[in-house]
Amino acid sequence: MITAERLTKNYGKVRGLDQVSFSIPPAQVTVLIGPSGGGKSTLLRCLNGLELFDEGSLRIGEYEVTVGQGRSQGGLARLRREVGMVFQSFNLFPHLTVEANVELAPRIARGLTEAESTALAHDLLGKVGLSERRDHYPHQLSGGQQQRAAIARALAMAPQVMLYDEPTSALDSALTGELLQIMRRLAEDGMTQVVVTHDISFARELADEVLVLIEGRVVESGPPEEIFTAPRDQRTREFLRRYLS
Amino acid sequence: MKRWIDLRALWLILLTLLGGVDRIAVAQDLTWGGDAEGGAPYLLPDPHRPRQIIGFEVDLMEALARQLGRRQVFVQNQWDGLIPGLLRGNYDLAVNGLEITDDRRQRIAFSIPYYACGEQLSLRRSEKSIERLTDLHGRIVGTLKFSLAQRLLEDEGGIEIRAYENQNNAYDDLANGRLDAVLMDWPIALYYSRPNPALKFAGESIGTLEYGIGVRPGEKQFLQQVDDGLRELMRSGELRRIYERWGIWNAETERLFVRQLENPTRAPAEQFLPLPAGSLGWRERAARTLGYLPPMLMQGVPMTLLISILGMLVAMFLGLAIALLNLYASPPLAILARLYVEIFRGTPLLIQLYLIFYGLPNIGIRFSPLMAAVMGLGLNYAAYEAENYRSGILAIPRGQMEAALALGLTRYQALRYVVVPQALRLVIPPVTNDFIALFKDSSIVSVITMVELTKIYGQLAATYFDYIGAGLVAALLYLLMGLPFVRIARWAERRYRLPGAVTQLH
Fold first, then answer.
1. Average confidence (pLDDT) per 10 residues, chain B, 506 residues
2. Best residue of B396, B405, B407 to probe chain A, by most A CBs closer than 10 Å
3. Residue B86 sits in the same domain as residue B229
4. Where do the domains of chain A lie, and which CATH numbers do they carry?
5. Which residues of chain B lie closer than 8 angstroms to A108, CB-CB?
6. Long-range contacts of B482-491 (CB under 8 A, 24+ apart)
């Protein structure tokens, strides 16, 4: 579903990403872990064009992203319709109700009629358990509810891929459980998902595959039980030891 | 300058101590007020030495002062404030083409006339359909404000009158087609209309008006001295030589001189009529201020509202476009937007209005006064609104734009549906503030012949010599007009408050 080849991103002289290559099959949940500044967020933002990479190539579904084409806004908008994103601070639109937050993009960017987009919003908000809250404004929701609203908003564009940046940072363990359920259900429905997280137990529960990003490189990848119990790379061991202690 | 004032004050104190001595009779300087902006041939800055004032009235006062054994000192004063200035004691005499009228006699005393002429009608050279005053019905005719010509046109009726501060602007507007005719005192027409190849005179001048020297009422003895001095100048031929030098000697003045010299005594009634409005009791003044001033001033309210609201609409839409270009357009356009803001914010609104109304016709772009007023205010305030919007847009967190882009919206859609709606709510208070400011600035458009509240105030104040009463009523009207908008803005602020925003930007 996603194929990245030798993605490189420079911030001046600093390498944000250094020749990152990987491949993600459809419906897989991939978790990116690694120390802060290791390149997890940069990679995630490259996947929907919020950051433009400087070298390499990226393929998402049928959609090929090249370095040069990054400049074209139209091309980026088309890519982003295939890739939904849930931000760490959710970034809901404060001037719109929850329902309007969800309806906005399908109506404007997908060209749905008002009736269609409203029906879609009802449906999605029902799936994330926010039917009762659809007329509320974002600030009237709890952190967990805001996150579910953000998920519904991203799903409204019917993407093939969902990206999550630190989704559990604002959640207690009960809410983390709910999130886990939602994401598993999406995976069962065939959604390809990429998650940046610091939460090792959440990663262990959820991941089909784990990518360890350190200093802009993928130092190791594999199923969670392998990575978390028997890491092969010295740097991964170092990171996990420091992180878990 | 300051020392001069001090000396003068000292002099006055000394005179007061001496007691009972007529200040005017003893003072050395003969001070007289006029408006050097009035132009040729009356009073104008010397084209070669702009700090020097010349004109036939300067020559007249020079000669008159010599007759009285004093030194003439010119005091600059705006023309429509000449009489209040005289009454306030800013100068001893008011001399600047003041026609002797009954209205003015209510307020001040006049010397014998020193000059006489008619009103001259000027037309475009190509004009065929106008020959006399009666042909002007339904046409647009320019004149100077508060002039006898204006009253003549008003009495004729059915004429759309544009009252100007400055004859140049009137003749320019005649030449470029904004006016159909201009009626002004003959000497003005001689100097400003005759030399213009695009214009012509329509027949002989109309009627006769006489200029007199304004003197404060009650200064009988001084008035007599002035009259005697003028008669002596007529008798000696000096005054005629002055007029001939300026090319304005005419049959009317010749008749005036003959009349004055053959019949040197004034009719007593003519000599001392003045019933100064200042002598009205406060009850009568209050009754006038509250009685018929408000309804007359109120006639200016709709125009002020119209100009302000249209101007603000232009400012809001244009300002938003400029702010967006400034923030998001590619460099050339963004720089242009930036320049627009700096230029329109950094130059006086008054000059912008003059450029739009009187300057643009020179390159073939002509606006009606209303259009020019709305454009002037709108273009100027657009610069301020652009800055308001820009600060509002910058105050919206970056994550909002990113979230919208991540949903597949284009940059334009993200601005249109996510960023700008939030920014607009943030800037309601500063925009309201500017609207109130624009409201008051709309008073400036009276300089481009718009008849709105301030213009009407100026006219009424000058006619009734009541700057305080009319001024208070006009100021009150501005205040009352502004209040509803403040209320609407407060309501909008509450209604469209960004939900959950802890504090509003102020």
1. 53 48 56 86 82 89 91 86 84 92 86 92 90 87 87 86 87 90 92 89 87 91 91 91 91 88 55 42 72 79 90 94 91 93 93 87 82 92 94 92 90 91 90 89 82 80 73 89 87 76 41
2. B407
3. yes
4. 2-94+161-244 (3.40.50.300)
5. 409, 413, 417
6. B482/B436, B482/B439, B482/B440, B485/B432, B485/B435, B485/B436, B485/B439, B486/B432, B486/B436, B489/B428, B489/B429, B489/B431, B489/B432, B489/B435
